[in-house]
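Tip: read the tokens left to right.
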């Protein structure tokens, strides 16, 4: 997944947060992550035992003077490997062959003509911010996940059209679909 200067910006923000926290009597721990696409990483506090793949970003843990903890991950990740996500799509298509679109998509996967593109390569920027707040006793108080996506509307307007409720590629007239695997979008 291409992130451009995003990781540099994240490091700068984390450093600034650390300085601000120190001046407020808080303690901050920062962990930088850059996990390969095929290796899992478990966000223990966010997902329990669920591994995430292609993790790139920063986990910042802030402790206030009372020991209360706030954890925040800023970056990108996939919920499964590219191969597992592809197989999930194929399995779903096998179970529902009721539409011409699904039959065409399954045939394209089988004969190798399915074209898959990471939307980051076409100008869509995506990332995620996950924040978990804890009580002083260490139990979880709240957890929020916010996806930050830009350029999707422009991409869809430029490259796709909706006809009779079905998405098509403007250039070729072929069926199209947009999928999401964690913070990664696939076209």
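Filled-in amino acids:
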């Amino acid at each position: 997944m291409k992130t451009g200067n995003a990781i540099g910006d994240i490091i700068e923000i984390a450093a600034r947060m650390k300085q601000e926290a120190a001046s407020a009597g808080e303690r901050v721990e920062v962990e930088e992550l850059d996990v390969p696409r095929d290796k899992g990483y478990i966000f223990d506090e966010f997902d329990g035992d669920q591994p995430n793949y292609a993790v790139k970003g920063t986990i910042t843990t802030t402790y206030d003077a009372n020991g209360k903890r706030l954890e925040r991950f800023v970056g990108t990740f996939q919920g499964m490997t590219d191969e597992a996500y592809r197989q999930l799509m194929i399995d779903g298509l096998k179970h529902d062959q009721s539409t011409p679109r699904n039959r065409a998509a399954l045939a394209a996967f089988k004969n190798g003509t399915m074209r898959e593109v990471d939307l980051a390569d076409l100008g869509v920027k995506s990332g995620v911010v996950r924040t978990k707040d804890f009580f002083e006793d260490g139990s979880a108080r709240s957890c929020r996940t916010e996806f930050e996506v830009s350029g999707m509307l422009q991409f869809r307007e430029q490259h796709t059209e909706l006809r009779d409720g079905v998405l098509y590629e403007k250039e070729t007239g072929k069926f199209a679909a947009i999928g999401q695997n964690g913070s990664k979008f696939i076209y």
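Helices lie at 6-23, 44-47, 82-95, 100-111, 152-159. The longest strand covers residues 51-63.
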